[in-house]
Amino acid sequence: MRPVAKSSGGVLSDRQQSRATASLTYRQRLRHLLHLPTETTDQQIHDLIELGFTSNNVRALIDLGVLNTDLQGRLSSGGHSTADESDYVFRIAHILSLAEIFFGDIEKAIRWLSKPKTQFAGKTPFQMLSTSPGTRRVEELLAQGTEGMTL
Q1: Among residues 84, 125, 133, 88, which one has the least CA distance to residue 108?
Q2: Label partner for 43 (CA 20 to 30 A): which of 3, 27, 51, 69?
Q3: Does the residue 7 lie in any domain?
Q4: Cα dist. 83→63, 116, 136 in Å?
Q5: How far apart (Å, rounded) are the C-alpha atoms in residues 76 and 95?
Q6: Residue numbers of the domain that contains 41
Q7: Which tens digits make up the pLDDT trace of 106-119?
Q8: 42-46, 73-77, 88-92, 124-128: which range is least confident on average?
Q9: Is 6 inside a domain boundary?
């Protein structure tokens, strides 16, 4: 590995730099998908999930066609999502951000997330996002892909 200088005087390996870049890209994508300022903290995101998202927060997800029509309709008429719905929306944005980084393209990520997987008993990764355990399984499958295993 080729060392890369760190601003603090230390050295980052290529792998560490790659992880740092992926982490920054993930946070930027997540904030874009949820229409949040870049400086939004994790605590502020948590608080927003509890308060409920508006159509403004999820406009990018609506435009991508990855939210169910019932939620889209309610948000379009000026309503807020419930905390449970907001948590689900966050899971979609979270996994979509990870998948976009992995595949390098939002359309490829959506295609992969929309195709049934034998690992999920024929369900799509998007369908698995209805629960936290399902979301973890999708995260694990994406992590396996980054380690060179077949998705």
Answers
A1: 125
A2: 69
A3: no
A4: 22, 28, 19
A5: 23
A6: 26-146
A7: 999 999 999 999 99
A8: 73-77
A9: no
